[in-house]
Amino acid sequence: MTDTAGKVRWGVLATGGIAAAFTADLVDLPDAEVVAVASRSQASADAFAERFGIDRAYGDWAALAADAEVDVVYVATPHSAHRVAAGMCLEGGRAVLCEKPFTLNVREAEELVALARGRGVFLMEAMWMYCNPQVRRLKALVEDGAVGEVRTVQADFGLEGPFPPAHRLRDPAQGGGALLDLGVYPVSFAQLLLGEPSDIAARAVLSDEGVDLQTGAVLSWESGALASVHCSIVGGTAGMASITGSRGRIDIPDGFFHPETFVLHRDGRDPEVFAADPADGPRNSYRHQAREVTRALRAGETESPLVPLDGTLAVMRTLDAIRERVGVRYPGENEGEDRGEPVAVATPA
User: How confident is the model over 123-182, as pLDDT tens digits?
Assistant: First the structure.
């Protein structure tokens, strides 16, 4: 699995902003080595390799998937290409860390999970929030009953924009819209604490192209718990979250997916502030998910208990259900159509 120096050997598939941010964190980890990068453009791969001191640069994805000296590939393409890119790597025997949202829809997610499990190859969604030490601390408090039985969860994530029609966030062919890019965070946060909801209601404002500019959803559970989630690409939100239980409340004032602090309120007690440990590094660090991949690979695991594949599938089912309710459909999703062929998209309500 690793080279003679004991390092996990990484390949990076794609060369955009998120690939660069993750690679910058990887190169600082003593037990990781980035040995290859791939892009659809040789020039882009070469420039990325030169920037980060990577030995091998490929102008096509298949070459990286076939590189036997790569232990794990980080897939950082737009999510419309995740099924193809991650599937290619899994078929080549490479372990995969795939950016979120995991795929365009649950059908594609199920195909990747079945492929990984069938071949016994490690696969994990890059839901870095789940690996963040502060989020793990918060989850443990909730599980230990710090707020009693969870009654409500609220979370929002919005970007100010505006994004022009040609931007990928407005492009149906690239899985554009607020929900998959941003809404995956509040949905994943709610399901981290409560599991998969039993019922879903949602409304959205759609663009002329048929993607959601902003979406609000209410998720409900048979326990009586409710979650209110919101995402937007037309308004910058605080990224706040709150968990209210039968005996208390936890507030995250901003950036709930990588919190600097959160506050536990309990009846009859002073508020307790939980601050991030400076030793954990910057709040926006991707190193925690890289460390989890390293730990799992060295343990011979094919799934991460922090980001389980069944949980990823559950989130994808919720995202699919929300899109169905608000009328967003992407090219190639119509029954009987070949994947990737243009089809009609939703029009504004």
Answer: 999 999 999 999 999 999 999 999 999 999 999 999 998 899 999 999 999 999 999 999
Report d(CA 274, CA 267) in Å as an integer: 17
Beta carbons within 8 Å of 9's beta carbon, 6+ residues apart: 2, 3, 33, 35, 69, 70, 71, 72
Q: Is the pLDDT of residue 345 over 50?
A: no
Side chain identity, residue 253? P
For 311, counting Cβ atoms within 10 Å of its Cβ (0-12 exposed, 13-18 middle, 19+ buried), the class is buried
Selection from 12, 9, 35, 36 nearest residue 23 by Cα:
12
CA distances in angstroms from 225 to 175, 199, 307, 313, listed in the order given: 30, 11, 23, 21
Whether this model's pTM surpasses 0.85: yes
- Residue 146 is predicted with a pLDDT of 96
Q: Which long-range contacts (CB under 8 A, 24 or more apart) does 339-348 make?
A: 339/83, 342/173, 345/172, 345/209, 345/210, 345/211, 346/206, 346/210, 347/206, 347/208, 347/210, 348/205, 348/206, 348/207, 348/208, 348/210
Residue in the block written with tokens 């941010």: 21
Structure tokens at 111: 């195909």
Query: What are the start-end ranges of the H helices in the chain?
Result: 17-26, 42-52, 61-65, 82-91, 106-119, 128-131, 133-143, 178, 184-194, 287-298, 309-326
Q: Which residues lie closer than 8 Å to 204 by C-beta, 6 or more apart?
A: 179, 212, 213, 214, 215, 216, 326, 327, 328
Classified as helix, coil or strand, 210 is coil
DSSP state of 169: G
